[in-house]
Specification:
alpha/beta; Protein-Tyrosine Phosphatase, Chain A; 8-stranded mixed beta sheet; 10 helices
């Protein structure tokens, strides 16, 4: 299988997608090389990561700033061979603002997204930092829809994307959802056989990506936070990093 729901943003500096379904170490290495990926920002919870881990040999990984190489940690400043930075930056939707079960409308979904960044603005900054430092970065969660959609939307805006472009990118997930949900359901049932079938029903609003949800999020974002670059500075990015995002077109 592969990383699904995959597409580039911000001049190709951001790749957004799903988790790596059914990929062994060889397939993973091939995928990373094919797409020129220099960093992976994994937005999943610890449980999600344990069900579908990234299978990459340690000598190909930088974990949160230090290169894992032959069992030793090489800190910044040393000679670093080609490697992929893996940033685990989790947001568990069940433990942050709002309830997934309470999402019944597109507007509810947009409000849920807004609650995430209201409580965890630094989560967005941490997700975009590798991008701001010039790395071609894969940003993903499980489906590549909600958490990925929020980070991608802000990154796209910061790089000069218009509201209509951000909304169109978010809604583009709709065509990919049947395949992603099918594989996601199979993956969960293998690991957690008691998972109810309706848990992955496409009729659930939480498993849809309507334009109205992103428009609701963007309207709320503009009202609460104003300028996206100011938001990112307040969230923890430096002025240099924010300027780098502006130039990622």
């Amino acid at each position: 299988m592969a990383v699904l729901n995959l597409r580039p943003l911000a001049g190709g500096r951001i790749l957004r997608g799903s988790q790596p379904f059914g990929m062994d170490a060889a397939a993973t290495s091939g995928f990373l090389a094919e797409h020129g990926i220099q960093a992976i920002v994994d937005l999943r919870s610890e449980l999600e990561r344990s069900l579908v881990p990234w299978l990459i040999h340690d000598d190909r990984l930088i974990h949160d700033g230090g290169l894992i190489n032959d069992g030793g940690l090489i800190h910044d400043g040393g000679a670093v061979p080609p490697a992929v930075e893996l940033v685990n930056n989790p947001l568990d939707p069940n433990a942050v603002a709002g309830s997934l079960q309470a999402v019944e409308t597109a507007e509810d979904l947009g409000d849920l997204y807004l609650g995430w960044i209201r409580i965890r603005p630094e989560w967005v900054a941490d997700a975009l930092r590798p991008v701001a430092r010039g790395k071609r970065t894969l940003v993903h969660c499980s489906l590549g829809k909600d958490r990925t959609g929020v980070v991608s939307a802000i990154g796209f805006l910061a790089s000069g994307g218009t509201e209509d472009q951000v909304v169109a990118d978010y809604a583009a997930t709709t065509a990919n959802l049947p395949d992603v949900l099918k594989i996601m359901a199979e993956t969960w049932r293998l690991s957690v056989p008691s998972t109810p079938e309706e848990y992955f029903s496409p009729d659930l609003m939480i498993l849809q990506s309507p334009e109205a949800a992103m428009r609701r999020f963007l309207a709320g974002f503009a009202q609460e936070f104003g300028d996206v670059h100011g938001f990112l500075r307040e969230a923890g990015l430096t002025a240099v990093e924010v300027d780098s995002l502006r130039e990622a077109r």
